[in-house]
Write a structure and sequence with these properties.
Layout (H helix, E strand, L loop, with lengths): L10 E6 L9 E13 L2 E19 L2 E12 L15
Antiparallel strand pairs: 1-2, 2-3, 3-4
């Protein structure tokens, strides 16, 4: 999904569809971007990322589907001081 006024990407989502013999594996990822104030500048930065995977895993002597979720929120962006100068 993009921002119509400036074309900035706000969300990217990917759903994986695997072919046999891996069709039991399901995978999806979504990342969201948005404006973040860093110092006195507003930048489009990563705000949230979610990855979801379901795959057969060996457990208790049988193969059972297991779902793994990775849900991360990105915060506390800050400006880092920069040094400029000529390299000898």
């Amino acid at each position: 999904m993009g921002h119509p006024a400036n074309g900035a990407v706000r969300r990217v989502t990917v759903l994986a569809e695997l072919n046999p013999p891996d069709q039991a594996v399901k995978a999806a990822i979504s990342v969201e971007y948005g404006p973040v104030a860093i110092g006195e500048v507003s930048c489009i930065c990563l705000l949230k990322g979610v990855a979801l995977t379901t795959a057969p895993m060996l457990g208790a002597g049988a193969i059972e589907p297991q779902t793994l979720l990775n849900d991360v929120t990105f915060t506390e962006y800050r400006a880092l001081p920069a040094k400029t100068g000529a390299v000898p």
